[in-house]
Every structure is written in structure tokens, then in C-alpha cells.
Amino acid sequence: MVKIIQYVINVQLSRLLSVLLVLPRVLLLRTGKYPHGWA
């Protein structure tokens, strides 16, 4: 039971981290400040 809870927490944290990594790129692309477009 505890392992399941830890697994769920780890999945949520990894999702949160990936979102935090992706969001700045999306915002930069939308504002057009990113120098190389889709790079």
C-alpha cells in the first residue's frame, strides 16, 4: 500500500517537472522571443 502511494507521488512529481521544463519553451515560442524558432 505504501509503495503504491510512493509510486503515485513519483509519477505526479515527474509530470510536474516535465511541465515546468516544457512551459518556458512554449511561452518563448508564443511570444516570439526564441531565436531559432522550433529549435
SSE topology sketch:
Layout: H1 2-31
Keywords: Membrane, Transmembrane, Transmembrane helix
Transmembrane segments: 7-28
Explain what this protein looks like in three dimensions.
- This protein has one helix and no strands.
- The protein has 39 residues and is an all-alpha fold.
- The chain has a domain at 1-27.
- The longest helix has 30 residues, at 2-31.
- The radius of gyration is 16 Å and the shape is rod-shaped.
- The mean pLDDT is 84.
Largest sheet: none
Tell me the span between the first and last alpha carbons: 43 Å
Helical fraction equals over 70%
Counting helices, strands and paired strands, the structural category is: mainly alpha
The total count of strands amounts to 0
What is the overall silhouette? rod-shaped
Query: Unreliable runs, pLDDT <50, ≥5 residues?
Result: none
The arrangement of helices and strands along the chain is H
Radius of gyration based on Cα positions: 16 Å
Number of helices: 1
Q: What do the pLDDT scores average to?
A: 84
- Strand proportion: under 5%
